[in-house]
Amino acid sequence: KEGAKFYALQAYSNNKYNRAAFNKLVELVPNDIGPAVYLEHLRLVLQENPLDINAAASFSQYCERLQLYDLASQAYLYCAQLFQYLYPSEPLPPHIYLPWAINCYNSKQNQQVCLQIAQTIRNGGQFDLFLEAIAGKAAAKAGDQAQAQQIYSQAERRAAQVLKTPPSQLKPSQQSENFPAVQLNAKQIAWFYCFARKDPAQAIVWANQAYSLEPNSPSAGGLVAYALMMNNDVKSAKAFLDAFEHTQISDIAQAKVQAADGDQAGAVKTLKMAVAKDPGSLAAETAKDLLRELGNEYVPPVDTGAITLYLTKNLGLAATPRFFPPDKMLDVQLAIRGSDYSYGADLDGVVTIQNKGADPLVVSPDGLFRGGLQIAAQVSGSLTQEFPEVFSQTIRTDLSVPPGKSIVHTIRLSTGEFGRFLAVHPQASLDIEFTLYLDPAGQPGGLVSNRLLDLKPATVTIQRPAVEITAEEVRSRFNLISTGQQAQKIQTAHLFTGLLREHQIMIEQGRTLYPYRYKPWVTEVLRSSLTSVSGLLLSPNRDDWVVKVHTMADLLAVPLDSDLIGAVAKGLTHDQWPVRLMAVYLLADNHGQNFRPVLEWVAKQ
To answer: Which residues neighbour 553 within 8 Å (Cβ) at sequence distance 6 or greater?
Structure first.
């Protein structure tokens, strides 16, 4: 166990986004993971994937549980913005706007936001008595008693109207597939008169009605008991308290009974127990007021100041989540390195992904960006062809990019099928549009797009002009095979094999695909450059082994006849192993299973 703990701790210390390591620590040493560390972990999970609504909710709920109301109110604002981004046609659900509002109410200075939330919900055609109660309390807490009374009065009238409206006649905006329409009932109205617009007469009327509808409900029984104590009916309240399992509200009623009987110590203990069940509720606020009346105070079980300091020290400004849509978090660019795109030149793409958000960009399998890169090419001009995957790769994961910084990734584009296409059409004039996809995902109709749909694929267009072939150019390059430098010989091999394959393609197609120059003698020169004793494949010069490897790599695009096979086969006994390996690969690629006896011979030798 100690060994597992050591390695899990080391893994987590090296990468705090490592969920597996953190979960293993929780499993091995749960008592060593304090609330501050756990809260930091939840914040990092949200940093990793800012579009994970469940991660946002988990962080918000834990902030609320720790009674970090200022941070929780900002976290629930994030949840609201994220929900509206993910489900733009859906109204904001109660499980987001209610905790958002109550945390704003309990925060130091966000009471005005409660009123804004309530107005937003009203504007959407929804009515929520709980939210109206919070808004009224927020106005009163801000010192505007007139506005509070106005909110309460409007809520009473709206509640009466809703109670008269059958559920089947609710507006579509009040219903959703994601959550049921808010159904108003007697318990809600009784709660409203108990803890918002405190009215003992109305509270007992509605509590009794709720109890008559749900005679076995502990919550209904607790409301009756509390309403009875609001009316100073201690004897009747005791009967209800003895009959049901206690809720937060019945605990408060019990404490009022204890205080009335002179048991202040018992009342204090019961009130603290009641607050602990839901410290941020309006009922808990009433319990805290009663504690102060009894000369006591409720003290949170954790040091909220120390937790806030720990989170701020470790995460800085990122401790508070701020929502940005993906197109505001990432700036993606694709560029082509260099300016010479002539035939045979290396074609390198440069992918730049800038983190424009407020949090680190975490590249991981669970992150906003999972590291997947795919580049497609659309060719037009002398030829038209599509290459859906010129390049496809997942870049290194577990990478964190600070705000304002970038990932820069260089990609060789002139390889594979696309590279062979460029190589075997030297006299074609081509326009090439490259498109970069991040974490590519399939769409209806076989299309490809970014997984993050509102992040547009990056594109760049280049032109590759045709090679101008002249008799003088061919003869000059042929002479370089014996006199030129190594790089010149390699370039000649690339051009000559390309021209040879280009001519073969025209013959196979039975037509000219695009204007190109050809003379019969040119083909003989091209073949001679490969098969002659002093040519690219058979040169006796010891230093030409590198040229032979490159030449055979270029010949992968060319079907080999008996003469070319014979020239390549000479490389099977070359003293440089790269030549031998390339010869084996090229011959096997051309002949497949028919080449197995030769492969077996090479293996033995």
So the answer is: 582, 586
Packing angle of the helix pair 145-163, 186-195 (nearest 10 deg):
170
* Rounded CA separation 86/89 (Å): 9
Partners of residue 391 on adjacent β-strands? 375
Token pair listed for 591 = 């002949």
Total-model pTM: 0.85
**Structure confidence at residue 190 (pLDDT):** 96
Q: Are 453 and 368 in contact (CB under 8 A)?
A: no
What is the gyration radius of the CA atoms in the chain, in angstroms? 38
Question: How far apart, in whole angstroms, are the C-alpha atoms of residue 555 and residue 535?
Answer: 14
Cα–Cα distance for residue pair 50/361, rounded to 1 Å = 9
Q: What is the DSSP letter of 369?
A: B
Alpha-carbon span 285 to 246, nearest angstrom: 18
Q: Position 134: which residue type?
A: I
Q: Are strands 440-443 and 430-438 parallel, antiparallel or unpaired?
A: unpaired
Instruction: Tell me what pLDDT residue 167 has.
Output: 53
Written in H, E and C, the secondary structure of 313-348 is HHHHHHHCCCCCCHHHHEEEEEEEECCCCCCCCCCE
CA distances from residue 589 to 418, 529, 553 in whole angstroms, order as listed: 18, 22, 11
Q: For residue 329, what are its two tokens?
A: 């978090």
Buried-state track 230-250, b at ≥16 Cβ within 10 A, e below 16: beeeeeebbebbeebebbbbb
- Calpha distance 424→416 (Å, rounded): 12
d(CA 476, CA 170): 86
- pLDDT greater than 80 at residue 340: no
How high is the pLDDT of residue 181?
Answer: 42
CA distances, 41 to each of 33, 69, 306, 455 (Å): 10, 18, 16, 28
Is the CB of residue 455 less than 8 Å from the CB of residue 327? Answer: yes
Say how far apart CA 415 and CA 337 lie, in whole Å. Answer: 15
Contact 101, 131 (CB under 8 A): yes
* Sign of torsion over alpha carbons 165, 166, 169, 173: positive
CB 364 within 8 Å of CB 17: yes
Element (H, E) at 390: strand 385-394
Residues 561/569, Cβ–Cβ less than 8 Å: no
Q: Do the Cβ atoms of 454 and 445 come closer than 8 Å? A: no
Q: What angle do CA 437, 442, 447 make, to 5 degrees?
A: 80
Residue 460: which H helix or E strand, with range?
Answer: strand 458-464
3-state secondary structure of 177: coil
* pLDDT score for 178: 38
Report the largest interatomic distance among the alpha carbons of the chain, rounded to a whole angstrom. Answer: 118
CA distance 508 to 590: 17
Query: Which has the closest alpha carbon to 514: 467, 564, 571, 481?
Result: 467
**DSSP string across 470-518:** -HHHHHHHHHHHHHS-HHHHHHHHHHHHHHHHHHHHHHHHTS-SS----
Alpha-carbon gap, residue 308 to 311, rounded angstroms: 5
Q: What is the pLDDT of residues 477-509, one digit of tens each?
A: 999 998 899 999 999 999 999 999 999 999 999
List of residues 6+ apart from 444 with CB closer than 8 A:
none
Question: Whole-angstrom Cα distance, residue 357 to residue 361?
Answer: 8
